[in-house]
Design a protein that fits this description.
By secondary structure, the protein is of the alpha/beta class. The protein has a domain of about 210 residues: Amidase signature (AS) enzymes. The chain is built from 14 helices and eleven strands. β7, α7 and β8 form a beta-alpha-beta unit. The two termini are about 20 Å apart. Bound molecules: glutamine.
């Protein structure tokens, strides 16, 4: 990571990043550019450097913040109309940690509203364009963050991954994207989607940068009771036994040919290096997508109930009593996909259907957790595609929710199981679109997983 020093000042780094952000305006990456704030912070760091004072490990490094992380700099909208005008009084723990090391937020990035989606087309501010083909989607929900790194505007960006929102856009734009073990990084101050699967992670161009960011971000946070003690920085380097699993159930017609062949080639290369490739049967994974699209909407419905037109930004002016105030505000402020999830969520939680849907999905989730545990008795890591296809065309799936949900078929099981996954860029299709593979490890293996990704380079 290029940090500031006496010769290359933080102000220079920040101004360069802001200029690039302006240059790539057409891509619709940012919902807010932090011009004044970022330059002021850069000058503070430069003053410290000039005085010979100690600066952090990320001194003067410009970064992009997904617009669902709270901080008082700019409005935090989660790309949703209902949060337009909301300035947060608090700062997310991860943001605090990054900035304590000297990182400087140059802008907030576009996402599917409330992180619901796989293309960034569900944003109130319109879609972000793919870094490699402007007619294609950036992936989602962290599309803006992925493209900001892919186009070299910043060296890193933050993301949230509830079911693939870091890994899928990373793979669509040819960068690294990590969804850490659940509980590794604090969720405090991040707009909640589904509290039992939300994970905070990063986009980078190298595994070294990813490791550095994780060593800054990880650790227990008294403000998030689901965080784990800092296993990341306590990890002992492991010598893998050398067994890599591939999931038989994912090798089928649903997956794009070029992605399948990229996976095959990587496996062959690993075999040449002396790794053993083990075929895994993981039959419970076929329930992952269905279970995810019951459990996550249930949590979404409950997390989004706080946006009522009373406590946060938007308030409909068409209302003359409390009920219609709620109704009109929520109707005007949420995107169609947000509404769909709220309705599904309330349905699967309703007393008549709870047993048939939510409880069943929870049981399927347990099977999936166990299946991963069993798999990691046999192998050190698992290698799979991130998604069934490379970046698809804008508009291709946005009106077909099921087609869009199917995008997540390979990513969501990791969130249900809480295991870490790293999207690794491994090449391109004939037409020049990036291909990503997903490296999966057991819970708390994040550090060694990132290191192992080097083997795929
Ligand atoms: N695409 C998935 C969904 O729409 C994942 C979203 C996410 O990880 N935030 O639910």
């Amino acid at each position: 990571m290029k940090t500031a020093n006496k010769k290359v000042t933080a102000e220079r780094l920040v101004r360069d990043a802001l200029e690039k952000a302006e240059f790539f305006r057409d891509y619709n990456i940012f919902t807010f550019l932090n011009k004044t704030g970022a330059i002021q912070k850069a000058r503070e760091i430069d003053a410290k450097i000039a005085k010979g004072e100690k600066v952090g490990r990320l001194a003067g490094v410009p970064y992009a913040l997904k617009d669902n992380f709270l901080s008082p700099e700019g409005e935090t909208t989660a790309s949703a109309h209902i949060l337009e005008g909301f300035t947060s009084p608090v700062t997310a723990t991860v943001v605090e940690k990054l900035e304590a090391e000297g990182a400087i937020m140059i802008g907030r990035t576009n996402l599917d509203a409330f992180a619901h989606g796989s293309s960034t087309e569900n944003s109130y501010y319109g879609p972000t364009l793919n870094a490699f083909d402007q007619e294609r989607v950036a992936g989602g929900s962290s599309g803006g963050s992925a493209v900001a790194v892919a186009l070299d505007i910043v060296e890193f960006a933050t993301g949230t991954d509830t079911g693939g929102s870091i890994r899928q856009p990373a793979s669509f734009n040819g960068v690294y994207g990590l969804k850490p073990t659940y509980g590794c990084n604090s969720r405090y101050g991040v707009v909640a989607m589904a509290s039992s699967t939300d994970c905070i992670g990063f986009f980078t161009k190298t595994t070294e940068d990813m490791d550095l960011l994780m060593s800054v971000a990880s650790g227990q946070d008294p403000k998030d009771m689901t965080t784990l003690p800092d296993f990341y920085n306590d990890t002992k380097p492991s010598k893998p036994r050398g067994r890599i699993g591939v999931i038989k159930d994912f090798d089928n017609e649903l997956v794009n040919k070029e992605i399948r062949s990229a996976l095959k080639k990587k496996c062959e290369a690993l075999e040449k290096k002396g790794y053993e490739i083990v075929e895994l049967e993981m039959p419970a994974l076929k329930y992952a997508l269905a279970a995810y699209y019951i459990i996550v909407p249930a949590e979404v419905a409950s997390n989004l109930s706080r946006y009522d037109g009373v406590r946060y930004a938007l308030r409909s002016d068409k209302s003359d009593d409390l009920d219609s105030l709620y109704e009109n505000t929520r109707n005007e402020g949420f995107m169609p996909e947000n509404k769909r999830r709220i309705m599904i969520g309330n349905f699967v939680l309703s007393s008549g259907f709870y047993d048939a849907y939510f409880l069943k999905a929870a049981k399927a989730r347990t099977l999936i957790v166990k299946e991963y545990e069993k798999a990691f008795e046999k192998v050190d890591y698992i290698l799979t595609p991130v998604s069934p296809s490379p970046a698809f065309k804008l508009g291709e799936k946005v009106n077909d929710p099921i087609a869009m949900y199917l995008e997540d078929v390979m990513s969501v099981s990791l969130n249900l199981a809480g295991v870490p996954g790293l999207a690794v860029p491994v090449g391109k299709t004939k037409s020049g679109l990036p291909i990503g593979l997903q490296l999966v490890g057991p819970r708390r293996s994040d550090k060694n997983l990132i290191k192992f990704a080097k083997e795929l380079e």
